[in-house]
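sry for the spam today, last one i promise. struct tokens for design, 112 residues
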């Protein structure tokens, strides 16, 4: 499964959408996640992507690849620093959104 956490943006093809932190963590706990794309701001009064990153570290819920697609530069930096410090060997962390080429590959894979 590929997981996309965002309260506002449209979910790319090839991903399962989590609209909030609770949903995202539940899916990370229940399924093997290959690619995770995280937003930081999830709406007023809601837990942020940083809280999701902290839970990933605390509970060892690392997927194979993590992308940070937040438009909040400080939020993205905080998530990156939180995850980077505990990154297991073999897990890739990217401080940017999923590249268009990979999105295209995932879309084609889903259409098969």
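last one done:
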């Amino acid at each position: 499964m590929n997981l996309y956490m965002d309260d506002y943006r449209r979910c790319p093809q090839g991903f399962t959408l989590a609209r909030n932190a609770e949903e995202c963590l539940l899916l990370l706990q229940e399924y093997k996640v290959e690619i995770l794309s995280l937003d930081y701001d999830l709406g007023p009064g809601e837990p942020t992507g940083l809280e999701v990153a902290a839970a990933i570290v605390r509970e060892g819920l690392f997927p194979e690849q993590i992308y940070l697609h937040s438009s909040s530069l400080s939020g993205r930096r905080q998530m990156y620093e939180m995850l980077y410090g505990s990154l297991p060997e073999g897990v890739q962390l990217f401080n940017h959104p999923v590249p268009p080429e990979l999105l295209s590959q995932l879309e084609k894979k889903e259409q098969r």
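The CA atoms of residues 6 and 19 lie 5 Å apart. ok im logging off now
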